Structure formats: C-alpha cells, structure tokens
C-alpha cells in the first residue's frame, strides 16, 4: 500500500476472480463460461476489415447493440444501456443509485461483487442469509429501507426465485430500487422483463458472458424505464463514454440476433446439466436444483475442500468457497458432455479411493 492510497480503501477487500489457468490441458469448470464457441455470426465480426477500423473510436451509444437488445426483448432503445461486462453496469448502478439510508440488501452467499461494490461506493451492505436449504427467503426482502439486489438464479446455488415472489418484493418496496441480476436466467429461469411495464422501481441486468458465449468480449447490459437508463447514461458519460470496443459491440449484436445458435447451445447445456445432476445424485451427492449453467453439489463422503483438491490434482478445475454455510459444496460449471464424463469418472475414482482409506 502506498502512502497515497485513499484512506477509505485501506480495508477494501477486492473481488476474487476464479482462476484463469495459464496452461492448457485443464478441464475448466470454475468460472461458468459457456463451453461452446460464440455464434459463427459473432465470430465473423473479427475480420480484417473491422480490425482495420480500430483507429476510430466506437459509437459511445453502442446503438447497434442497444437496438439489437431492445428488439430482442420488445423494449424501446431508451430502455437499454450496454456496458463493459455486466460488472461495469452493476458498478454504474451502485454509483448512480442510493437510498436515503445508504443501505444495500442482498443475499449471502451470492455474487461477491455486491459486497465489494457496496464498499467501493461507500454504501452500507446488508447481507441477508439464505434459508437452511440455501434458498432465498422472499419474506425477508419485503418492506425494506434500501436498494435491493438479487441474482436470479442465485449464485453459487443456481436456485431461482419464481416470478410471483419477485413481484411481491417489487410491490412491497415501492420506494426502493430493486435490481435483478439475470446473468444465468437463460438456463432455465424466467426473466422479469415483462414486469418493466408495471414497476418503475425495477432494473434488470444481463450479460453476454454466459448464455451468449462472449465472456472474453466483456459485454453486459441493463434494462429499465427510460429515467433509470438515463441516470445510468449520466454516470457512463461522466466516467467512460467509450466503454465498449467496436468489435465487442458488433459481436454481441450479431450474437443476440442468432437465436437459432443460442437455442441450440443453451438446450445442450440444460440437457447436460440434467444428466450430470442425476449421475452425481446416484453417487450420493446432494445436487441443488439448478436453473443455471452450473451445479452446486455436496458429496456424502468427501469434504468440499477434498473434492475440490482431488479434482484439481487430476486437472479438473471447479470452484470451492471456504465460507459457511457452503464450505461442504463445490460449484461445477456445466461443460461439454465429454468433459462432464471425465468429471464423473474422476469423481468415481476419488470416492473409491476415499472408501479404501
Ligand atoms: C458472471 C456474473 C456477472 C458478471 O458478468 P460479466 O462477465 O461482467 O458480464 C454478474 N452477475 C453474476 C451473478 C454473475 O455470475
């Protein structure tokens, strides 16, 4: 720490990203990336002709992408803003919106950035523990006195709330902004987009990183009423107007227009999830009911740490969180079927080894 660091950040604990290994040959199931390449239409964007235009700034409004998202969801273009990953969009939200109490409510555990952004932007984080079954208790989000942020489906559990529960939260928090982070919604949950017509306290955040196979391109977006989106644009244009590069804007617009590829790849992921969940359950695992592109699982005999370490030693990377109440679990991204077959056979070996001891 230098002597120049803003004192307010002395105790700031940054977000810990999942490992991005520098070597090949690992089966990477730790950061919920899509195992399938981006849509061929998105890939065609990265051509000589487009690269040769990189001396020019991108469109600060990212109109091509904003229009494509608005078309996809049947919204007006003033209801959409794009960002450098949904992480940046979430940061804009924390900068732009603040309740009189300064409080932010979110589930614990959930996506780690909610706490980090509360700290960076000097808001008071109020984590609300999950129920014993690791579900969000919607009752605890009624009539609060601050901003609410919920991942739906939640991470790292993969469990989704139903829309009736979300609607109750919106109704009972008329004077609070409710942000729904739909990073994983395409893998089996229902989007809140239809609620945008009824509730002006709703903001929805989505990403191209998971269901659209573009994590490396860094594209996310928010949808809300025009005033909320104008507020976010006020922040964006005061911070980084050219937040999205030319190629990513075009790739993401092409990806969201390729519905056929999207449907095909997400269906495969859902099928693989169903299959691997049943296989692991047959081996005595507890598998939480996932609506995401990952599963959160607990072995009947191996600790979370031992299962994580055993897989790592055999070149399979998954995610383990040390803290309670989830330290017995590991989070496994749904990869290609062949990778999940390898995971399954390695898991069987680990269980056999364990029983011999
Ligand atoms: C992955 C993820 C994001 C961030 O995605 P970006 O890559 O920044 O678009 C946001 N929220 C949740 C819950 C996520 O899992």
TrEMBL record:
It is an enzyme of class 2 (transferase). It comes from Zhenpiania hominis. Its EC number is 2.6.1.9. SUPFAM superfamilies: PLP-dependent transferases. The gene is hisC. The modification N6-(pyridoxal phosphate)lysine is found at residue 210. It catalyses: L-histidinol phosphate + 2-oxoglutarate = 3-(imidazol-4-yl)-2-oxopropyl phosphate + L-glutamate. PROSITE patterns: AA_TRANSFER_CLASS_2. The lineage of its organism: Bacteria, Bacillati, Bacillota, Clostridia, Peptostreptococcales. This is Histidinol-phosphate aminotransferase. Belongs to the class-II pyridoxal-phosphate-dependent aminotransferase family. Histidinol-phosphate aminotransferase subfamily. Keywords: Amino-acid biosynthesis, Aminotransferase, Histidine biosynthesis, Pyridoxal phosphate, Transferase. Residues 26-345 form the Aminotransferase class I/classII large domain.
